[in-house]
Amino acid sequence: MYNRNYGGFDYPEVSSGQAVRIHSELLSSVLN
């Protein structure tokens, strides 16, 4: 199984698209 690292966060690779979406939501909540 892969762990991908996005901006310092590790996501189990459920699906790369889903991980990117989660990361985008986290960034949005942090930036706002």
TrEMBL record:
Domain of life: Bacteria
Protein name according to UniProt: Uncharacterized protein
